[in-house]
Amino acid sequence: MKKKIAIIFGGESIEHEVSLASAAELLTHIDKSKYYVYPIGITKDGEWFEYNGDVEKIASGQWEKDEFYKVPNGEKILFNRDVDCVFPLLHGRNGEDGTIQGLCKLLKLPIVGSKVLSSSLCMDKAYGKFILEKFDLPVTPYMVITEKEFKDDKDRILSQIVNNYSFPLIVKPSSGGSSMGVSKVRIKENIEKAIKTAFEFDNKILIEKAVNLREFKVPVLGKDNLFLGEIGEIDYHGKEIFDYEEKYLKEVDNLVCPVDLSEEYKDRIYEYAKKAFKVLDCSGMARVDFFFDKETEEIYINEVNTIPGFTKNSSYPKLLNKKGISEKDIIDKLIEYAINE
């Protein structure tokens, strides 16, 4: 019997457009012979619509103007429990942070991916790092600053940063994605500007040691018995930060696989990825991102992303493809995990 699957996309976060691209790609690959699919789009203003028009219009954002195929009050599909499972592709706030997961929990609807607590912890990088540290997993040295603290005691905080950390530093929002609001600071004179930029995206930020790095990504699929895809490396193409433009706007393949790394380091990265997935209580899917310090050869966990991108350029499906798992297989497994959990 065919299952009814709600695919939720868009949302109110700054990663709205990324979500549209992920949803369009997933809708292209989902097996319509197995599932009745209910695409539900959320506008940047928070309005919900069921949308049954062209997938290409979802990717371009034109779906919102396609009145013929757009049905208002799309949330009723969830509240009426008209589906068997919810597949969220809401990147960032109000989707990846435990909110949609909490809604589905209240409605007793199975949802693909991690649940409320895990989603919240992984979305908030400060708390995620704190948990990883407690389980002896390596993270880069960091400092957490709230917007109120900075306003109340700016001079002391700036002095603390300069005295306790060596430059360059990375400044970024604690709860954010797609590298928005992230700056690399080489001299102390630029630290305040970078802090203010990060606060435009969140009221809590991280100051981190900037390592002379290589960046690796590992896709994880499963719950108890985990399947890990190939390790991929990000080619920055000469840029200091793998930013939003490099990730989504340029028609350039930034993913390198196979990676030039010894088996010993590969094994350590895989072991760290599995442990991070488990200690953060992740479920279904996640992408674990790593930094490798080229000078010290130390490995650090950068973050765990519980709703990784599913776009044409996204590393999550690509690196699972390298291990022989197709997009259709990924989707089937994730839905199966959610329904049977």
TrEMBL record:
Keyword Cell wall biogenesis/degradation attached: yes
EC number, UniProt record: 6.3.2.4
Catalytic activity line of the entry: 2 D-alanine + ATP = D-alanyl-D-alanine + ADP + phosphate + H(+)
PROSITE patterns hit by this protein: ATP_GRASP, DALA_DALA_LIGASE_1, DALA_DALA_LIGASE_2
Pathway assignment: Cell wall biogenesis; peptidoglycan biosynthesis; Glycan biosynthesis
Amino acids binding Mg(2+) 2: 303, 305
Amino-acid positions noted as binding Mg(2+) 1 in the UniProt annotation, renumbered to this chain: 289, 303
GO BP term (any one): regulation of cell shape
An MF annotation (GO) of this entry: D-alanine-D-alanine ligase activity
Cofactor note: Binds 2 magnesium or manganese ions per subunit.
Domain of life where this protein originates: Bacteria
Keyword Ligase: yes
Main localization, broad class: cytoplasm
Domain ATP-grasp: 129-336
Family: Belongs to the D-alanine--D-alanine ligase family.
Protein name (Swiss-Prot/TrEMBL): D-alanine--D-alanine ligase
Provenance organism: Clostridium bornimense
Lineage start: Bacteria, Bacillati, Bacillota, Clostridia, Eubacteriales
